[in-house]
Amino acid sequence: MILSMLMGAALAGAPMPPRPERAMLAEVRRLYRGAGDRLWPGFGKVPLDLVLIGADRETLFCHAAVKGFTDAGRDPLTKCHLQVRPRQLSPDLAAAYPVFPGGQSIAIGYPATLEMSPAYWKATILHEAFHLYQSHLPGYAQAVQAVGRSLGSSDGGWVLNYPFPYADPKVGEAFLAMGEAGLAFLTAPSTEQRLAARTVYVAARETALAQVSADDRLYYEFQVGQEGVARWTELTLARQGDAAMRADALGRWTGLATSLRAIREQGFKTWKRGALYVYGAVEAEMLERSGVDWRQAYRRQPFGLGEQLRRLD
């Protein structure tokens, strides 16, 4: 008890996290509330709860009081109330999950620890912020649970460990054909060629998903809706950040095409779930460029990108 009190007193008197990281978080909050809210209705109203994980302690930003944390005052840069505690989480984390009871929070280490540039670190937080947004969508948690039940899982392990047939040669060939159409879409020099590539992609998508089971199709739609759209959102918002973020985002938009080429060269079975994230980001961009209000439909049916794509042609 005495030791706990002494540690709390020491943390309360400790300095705030370094200014560069707090300034980066302030920039993220600006994008989150401005560009994010314009992109996704209500995005900026979801609390951006975040635990910054240092070597020895964790700093909790913009969160109601949590047992075990000590009040550390208000940060003038982020305008967040801060709380601190001795480190309990791994400093190489970068995820959104129920860190505390009552909802999801972002847990992330310092850029240097994660070996991320400042621009990429900020974009990663925006990616995880979209997961917070998803968790606040009406019915989203129930939709995720329904997928898990359909796949015969009673816990969340299926999200990462579902045995999708990545190594099946016929499945791999079909998904690579889909990737080729996605690459043609991303690199098309004209609107007409882009529309033609999208039509080929949608047909190739149907062919690829016809090669797998109903459960596999459900898992594919979940991953492109959950992670693919999160990646698309991250890249879209980063293009509205500072100069370094815009340059990084431009490079990583180009990187989607590079990833599709790498999937072709290295094989679908090598990329596994990572390939689905790329396909999902490409599909979100197809819907965005189509001019339909796909984001409003996504709020109602987050795992229905395929249905939206089919309606385009």
Please describe what this structure looks like.
This protein has 313 residues and is of the alpha+beta class. Helices cover 61% and strands 11% of the residues. The protein folds into two domains: 2-116, no CATH class; 140-310, no CATH class. The protein has 15 helices and six strands. Strand 5 (94-100) and strand 6 form a beta hairpin. It is globular and about 60 Å long. The chain starts with a helix and ends with a helix. Residues 1-12 have low confidence and may be disordered.
Order of helices and strands: HHHEEEEEEHHHHHHHHHHHH
**What can be said about the biggest beta sheet?**
6 strands, mixed
Strand order of the largest sheet: 3-4-2-1-6-5
Report, as a whole number of angstroms, the end-to-end distance: 67 Å
Helix content: 55-70%
Note poorly predicted spans: 1-12
The assigned structural class equals: alpha+beta
Assign an overall shape. Answer: globular
